[in-house]
């Protein structure tokens, strides 16, 4: 087996090759001659900062010697947490995730390092270095899996939030794993955790799971809200600062989510009852600006959703009023605008309504939905791509059933591609079914694009699952 030279051997070889003295190299690297001498002779350990200066002076890429540093100064020596911490931060900066795994794997058999690694993970997460933080959280969670600690639950919460993305199958797996840890979190932290879980289940249209999580969130929020206003404990006020929203929001948002479940189940009267509940906020005691902002949002949502549930229940008389409401609130929020127009096209398809004039009126807004939205939070990252794919499917259904085949197939292909990216097999199959139902009206180019997409999806599945594919 080939023996990899040590860093000091590489440095000595470089000095000899370049004909540099210790003093000359120290001047180039900005390091004292004595330190360079100690490193070359092996009498002095090397710090990460010194290693970076030496690497730069030798004209090598950043982090070039990190793997060897792990061998020379971490695996072969007793762990030095100060040195390890600095190396972890530098590896995170350079996206050297394999190096991070090696470092952590070397020390994580000792539970004493777990708290500090958790703190480093928290710092990396705050810096936006999610991939590096994820490696640390996963290792801390693994080593503490039998400890039943709150830190273990927080790690699982962080893992969940980092893993949530546009792969809906992965989102479901992440949510299912994390749900078992929610009750181990601090009672205040549980509210945001349940909110985030609910949003994932909502985006996945897992209505039974959403209903259960929303009801649980409401009960816990009501208890905390009652404690806040009856006990008046300073500690409770301090812990409340950890919440991402005013506490009353978790109660009213639970009602909004339950209304969404009822809508999906076709119980529009119950959906209206929940909507009236979160529209009535007389019980909220706070009067600060943030509270007024959220109260305004809920009353705005209640107004729109009242129209929606009446419309979807078959009360077509409210359609024009709803359209005027959409127009009046246009431009305030792309996510809301998308969902509002989605409701219009769903109603049109359900009740065979002619809405060409409405679609033309909002043509500019509809065209903008195909652009990449700003994914500024976890919920938006999940919901916007799914809503755009859903909206295009409903438009395709509307156009194809009215003989507008060119536009219909264009929207349908967009929706199919989007659902493939989202890894949503159910709705991808729905798109396939709609295409096959109208395939006789597709031009050859559209049929070819459809078949190419199907083959691409098939081959991706073959590669992912290791199944037998075609030869050549």
State the end-to-end distance: 38 Å
Helix/strand/pairing category: mainly alpha
- What is the overall pLDDT average? 90
Helix-strand string: HHHHHHHHHHHHHHHHHHHHHHHHH
Radius of gyration: 29 Å
The helix tally amounts to 25
Q: What proportion of the residues form beta strands (DSSP E)?
A: under 5%
**Percent range for helical residues?**
over 70%
Q: What best-fitting shape do the alpha-carbon axes yield?
A: globular
As residue ranges, the low-confidence spans are none
Largest sheet at a glance? Answer: none
Tell how many strands the DSSP assignment holds. 0
Care to describe what's here?
The protein is mainly alpha-helical and 472 residues long. The protein is built from 25 helices and no strands. The protein has helices at 7-18, 22-29, 33-41, 48-57, 66-75, 81-93, 97-107, 114-126, 130-143, 150-163, 168-179, 187-203, 207-231, 234-240, 247-264, 268-279, 289-312, 319-328, 334-351, 356-361, 363-368, 378-400, 405-421, 425-437, 444-465. Helix 6 (81-93) packs antiparallel against helix 7 (97-107), helix 12 packs parallel to helix 15 and helix 12 (187-203) runs parallel beside helix 22 (378-400). The chain is globular and about 90 Å long. The mean pLDDT is 90.
Write a concise synopsis of the structure shown.
The protein has 472 residues and is mainly alpha-helical. The mean pLDDT is 90. α8 packs antiparallel against α9, α12 runs antiparallel to α13 and α15 runs antiparallel to α16.
Secondary-structure blueprint:
Layout: H1 7-18, H2 22-29, H3 33-41, H4 48-57, H5 66-75, H6 81-93, H7 97-107, H8 114-126, H9 130-143, H10 150-163, H11 168-179, H12 187-203, H13 207-231, H14 234-240, H15 247-264, H16 268-279, H17 289-312, H18 319-328, H19 334-351, H20 356-361, H21 363-368, H22 378-400, H23 405-421, H24 425-437, H25 444-465
Helix pairs in contact: 2-3, 5-7, 6-7, 7-9, 8-9, 9-10, 10-11, 11-12, 12-13, 12-15, 12-22, 13-15, 15-16, 15-17, 16-17, 17-18, 17-19, 19-22, 22-23, 23-24, 23-25
């Amino acid at each position: 087996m080939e023996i990899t030279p040590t860093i000091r051997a590489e440095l000595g070889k470089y000095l000899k090759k370049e004909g540099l003295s210790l003093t000359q190299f120290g001047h180039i690297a900005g390091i004292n001659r004595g330190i360079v001498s100690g490193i070359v002779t092996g009498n002095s350990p090397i710090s990460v900062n010194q290693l970076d200066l030496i690497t730069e002076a030798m004209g090598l890429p950043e982090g070039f010697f990190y793997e060897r540093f792990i061998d020379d100064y971490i695996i072969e020596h007793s762990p030095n947490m100060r040195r390890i911490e600095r190396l972890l931060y530098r590896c995170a900066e350079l996206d050297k995730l394999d190096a991070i795994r090696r470092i952590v794997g070397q020390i994580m058999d000792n539970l004493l390092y777990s708290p500090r690694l958790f703190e480093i993970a928290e710092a990396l997460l705050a810096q936006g270095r999610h991939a590096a933080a994820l490696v640390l959280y996963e290792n801390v969670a693994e080593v503490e899996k039998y400890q039943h600690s709150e830190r273990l639950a927080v790690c699982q919460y962080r893992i969940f939030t980092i893993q949530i993305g546009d792969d809906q199958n992965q989102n479901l797996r992440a949510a299912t794993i994390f749900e078992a840890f929610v009750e181990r979190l601090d009672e205040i932290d549980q509210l945001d955790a349940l909110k985030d879980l609910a949003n994932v289940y909502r985006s996945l249209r897992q209505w039974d799971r959403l209903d259960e999580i929303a009801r649980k969130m409401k009960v816990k929020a009501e208890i905390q809200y009652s404690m806040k206003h009856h006990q008046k404990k300073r500690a409770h006020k301090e812990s409340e600062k950890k919440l991402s929203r005013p506490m009353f929001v978790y109660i009213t948002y639970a009602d909004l989510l339950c209304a969404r479940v009822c809508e999906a189940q076709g119980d529009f009267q119950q959906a209206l009852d929940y909507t009236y509940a979160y529209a009535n906020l007389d019980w909220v005691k706070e009067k600060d600006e943030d509270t007024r902002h959220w109260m305004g949002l809920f009353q705005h949502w209640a107004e729109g959703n009242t129209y929606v549930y009446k419309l979807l229940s078959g009360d077509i008389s409210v359609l024009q009023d709803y359209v005027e409401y959409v127009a009046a609130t246009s431009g305030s929020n792309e996510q809301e605008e998308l969902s509002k127009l989605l409701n219009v096209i769903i109603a049109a398809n359900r009740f065979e309504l002619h809405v060409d004039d409405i679609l033309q009126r909002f043509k500019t807004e509809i065209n903008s939905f195909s652009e990449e939205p700003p994914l500024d939070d976890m919920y938006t990252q999940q919901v916007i791509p799914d809503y755009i794919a859903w909206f295009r499917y409903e438009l395709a259904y509307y156009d194809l059933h009215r003989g507008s085949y060119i536009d219909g197939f264009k929207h349908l292909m967009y929706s199919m591609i989007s659902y493939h990216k989202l890894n949503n097999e159910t709705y991808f199959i729905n798109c396939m079914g709609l295409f096959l139902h109208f395939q006789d009206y597709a031009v050859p180019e559209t049929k070819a694009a459809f078949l190419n997409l199907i083959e691409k999806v098939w081959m991706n599945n073959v590669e992912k699952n290791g199944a037998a594919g075609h030869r050549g």
